[in-house]
Structure formats: structure tokens, C-alpha cells
Write a structure and sequence with these properties.
Layout: H1 4-7, E1 11-20, E2 23-33, E3 38-42, H2 49-56, E4 64-69, E5 72-73, H3 79-89, E6 90-93, H4 105-115, H5 120-133, H6 149-162, E7 167-171, H7 179-196, E8 199-203, H8 207-210, E9 215-220, E10 223-229
Parallel strand pairs: 3-8, 3-9, 6-7, 7-8
Antiparallel strand pairs: 1-2, 1-4, 4-5, 9-10
Bound molecules: adenosine-5'-triphosphate and magnesium ion.
Domain ABC transporter: 11-233
Pfam families: ABC_tran (PF00005)
Protein name: Lipoprotein-releasing system ATP-binding protein LolD
């Protein structure tokens, strides 16, 4: 018999709908994401991309429809269980302003590890290792205000990956950077996630960024309007 745990999609969304007052942000989305897949989410401004990944990550509750991650249906969990699942399975990288300004880079990365129960010493050692992997081995003791935008985004990515999430959601993680910095941050991020076989949903407006993904999905007016395999060599 086929092993359901390995053949089922890692994320399955069915019939997702979400409105904000009169605005129908999601109008019925069905989406399966396989384990280890890197998916680019594209589409016009206001089409529902952020709302979609917030629903997939359990940050927002959809008005209708279900999201299952790794066999767990989010709608069946209470708020505490959802928060625990997020801490254990999910990493999130936002567009800007996400590092805590009063903590050094290494302490920003260590924070979710400490929340997960690691000792301070272990959390710091592991955080330095993540910074190293993202090319920031010598920046750990700086505060966010002392780093470039690209360095700060790498710290945010290190923080999101440090808990070894099953899924990484990234909402335009390089949207605030110039194209050279964006490309280098993205390449580093994708090297690390491919090596760890992390599943990734990456929102981007940039077709060159999307070309790094295995697949593109396009959101228009709260619906998926297309899904294409990006021929990765
Ligand atoms: N908290 C909210 N309150 C009210 N309306 C919202 C809220 N969040 C999103 N919306 C509306 O829902 C629609 C979808 O928004 P969403 O943020 O998902 O778009 P997006 O595709 O991520 O856009 P962008 O590319 O500009 O980030 C938009 O019309 C937006 O104005
Ligand atoms: Mg958005």
C-alpha cells in the first residue's frame, strides 16, 4: 500500500474564501503543494497573494475552505495548537521591518529557538551557524540598524530557517532591495532551502525571481488563474 504520509501533498488548500468587509480577497482557491517544492506566487497588487499565504500559514482564518499541512487540518486546531504548529512547522519572512531593533542579529535568530525550548547557549551557537550559512558570520553582534537592507533580510531568513521549518513562506522577501542585492539574497536562501528540502512559497513580482522556483502559480482577483512548471535545469 502506498505510504500516505509521503505521497499526499504537504499542503492542501480546498475552497479557500476570505473577505475583508465587502472586499472578497480570496474567492475559492484550491492548491496542492508537494513536499520539497519551491512555488512562486505571482499576480497583480491586491489580487490576494498575501491573504492566500496568511491563510495557508494559519495566520488568518479563512471564511470557508480548509488548509491541511503535513496531515493536520488547521481549522480543527484551537489558537494555541495553531501557534505551536506554526512555531514547529512554519517559517515566515516578511517584506520589511521584521527584526527586533533592540536585539543583535544573533539574538534575533535565537529568539524562536528559545521560544521552542532551547537553552540560551545552544540557541546562540545554532544562530551563529545559520548566520554563517547566510554569509553573515561576522555580523552576528550588530543591531539591525547597523546593517544594510540585504544583510537585514538575510538575518530575517536565518531566523525563519533556524527552527528548521517544514514550510517557508516568504512575502516578497527581497522586495525592498535593489536587484543585485535581491539576487544574492535569493540565491543564498534557495541554496539553503534546497539543501534542507524545505517546501517554499515565495511571493514575488519579479519574473527573474520566479524563475528560481519549480512552479509558478498566478493569483488574479482572488482566484488561481494559472499554474505552470518552470523548467528548472
Ligand atoms: N486587513 C485587511 N483589511 C481590509 N482589506 C484587506 C486586508 N488585507 C487585505 N485586504 C484587501 O484584500 C485584497 C487582497 O489583498 P492582499 O494583501 O492579499 O493582496 P496582494 O496580492 O498581496 O497585493 P500586493 O502585491 O500589493 O502585496 C486587497 O483588495 C486588499 O485591499
Ligand atoms: Mg501582498
Amino acid at each position: 500500500m502506498a505510504d500516505l504520509a509521503t505521497t499526499a501533498p504537504l499542503i492542501r488548500a480546498t475552497g479557500l474564501r476570505k473577505s475583508f468587509g465587502p472586499t472578497e480577497a480570496l474567492r475559492g482557491i484550491d492548491l496542492d503543494i508537494d513536499r520539497g517544492e519551491v512555488v512562486a506566487v505571482m499576480g497583480p497588487s491586491g489580487s490576494g497573494k498575501s491573504t492566500l499565504i496568511h491563510c495557508l500559514a494559519g495566520v488568518l482564518t479563512p471564511d470557508a475552505g480548509d488548509v491541511t499541512i503535513n496531515g493536520t487540518e488547521l481549522g480543527r486546531l484551537d489558537a494555541d495548537a495553531r501557534a505551536r504548529l506554526r512555531l514547529k512547522e512554519i517559517g515566515f519572512v516578511f517584506q520589511f521591518g521584521q527584526l527586533l531593533p533592540d536585539l543583535t542579529a544573533v539574538d534575533n535568530v535565537a529568539l524562536p529557538l528559545l521560544m521552542g525550548g532551547a537553552s540560551r547557549r545552544a540557541a546562540r551557537a545554532e544562530s551563529y551557524a545559520w548566520l554563517e550559512r547566510l554569509g553573515l558570520g561576522d555580523q552576528g553582534d550588530k543591531f539591525p540598524g547597523q546593517m544594510s537592507g540585504g544583510q537585514a533580510q538575510r538575518v530575517a531568513i536565518a531566523r525563519a530557517l533556524a527552527t528548521r521549518p517544514t514550510v517557508l513562506f516568504a512575502d516578497e522577501p527581497t522586495g525592498s532591495l535593489d536587484s543585485v542585492a535581491a539576487e544574492s539574497v535569493l540565491e543564498t536562501m534557495l541554496d539553503v532551502v534546497r539543501e534542507a528540502r524545505t517546501t517554499v512559497l515565495l511571493i514575488t513580482h519579479d519574473p527573474r525571481t520566479a524563475a528560481y522556483a519549480d512552479r509558478e502559480v498566478i493569483v488574479r482577483d482572488g482566484r488561481l488563474s494559472g499554474s505552470a512548471l518552470v523548467g528548472r535545469s
